[in-house]
Amino acid sequence: MCYIPVFCWITATVLEDVLKTREVGELPKNLTEMYIHFLVIQAKVKKVKYDGGFETDPHWSPEKKDLDVFDLKKYSASEKAFLRLLPVIKASNKALCEVLSSVLTSQSCNLRELDLSSNDLQDSGLKLLSTGLESPYCNLQSLRLTSCYLTERSCEALSSVFLSQSFRLRELDLSNNDLQDSGGILLSAGLKNPHCTLKSLSLSGCLIAQRGCISLASALSSNPSHLRELDLSYNHPGESGMKLLSAGLKDPLWRLETLRYRRNA
Length: 265
What we know:
Layout: H1 5-21, H2 31-50, E1 69-70, H3 79-91, H4 93-104, E2 113-115, H5 122-133, E3 142-144, H6 152-162, E4 171-173, H7 180-191, E5 200-202, H8 210-222, E6 229-231, H9 238-250, E7 258-260
């Protein structure tokens, strides 16, 4: 690690701050904790140097407050600081998923919303993340995974999550991933389960064709009481798929209120 200058600089910055400001407390246990602490330091420096803040403000301690929504943009002190972190972020997607999965399984986790869009997670990253999603301690309600290089293999992992008795997710965005019909069919198997209480599912631009859409319509007929919104824009549901889904909108047992479908140009 020390042969990479950016890692050396981040490590030295974090350790200096920890040793200077913490009379009692543990050092960062892993790279993710170190990166989080580094982001806090950068935000603190900006606040103190340019905005008239104080180093002793209590919200600068990562342990002081539970995190409900994680948004990296809120913690970047400047464009320069963020650019320095880009190599770290790009190189640690697997580590990110492992740590997030660990966080979601923690009894003290209060995270409600997670946006990992436009990250190269791939199926291996989603599989790691799904372990956390299946935890009885996971309170996550919104998960956005747009453009994360996922395939139908990720749908298999998510379908298993849908079967979990502790399932709490209400919003799932899988737009712009190469899921295809096989992925739509796998997701449908999970949607049929009564434990699945998903309210919003976005599959825009996922290359789902007629077979996948017919399977989704069948799933909604089997478990019609939860899903309120379904986005199938830029897919190819075919005449049969659209006919079944449109008929479902008129079914009094279905709770679906919004069906989005926009053809490819």
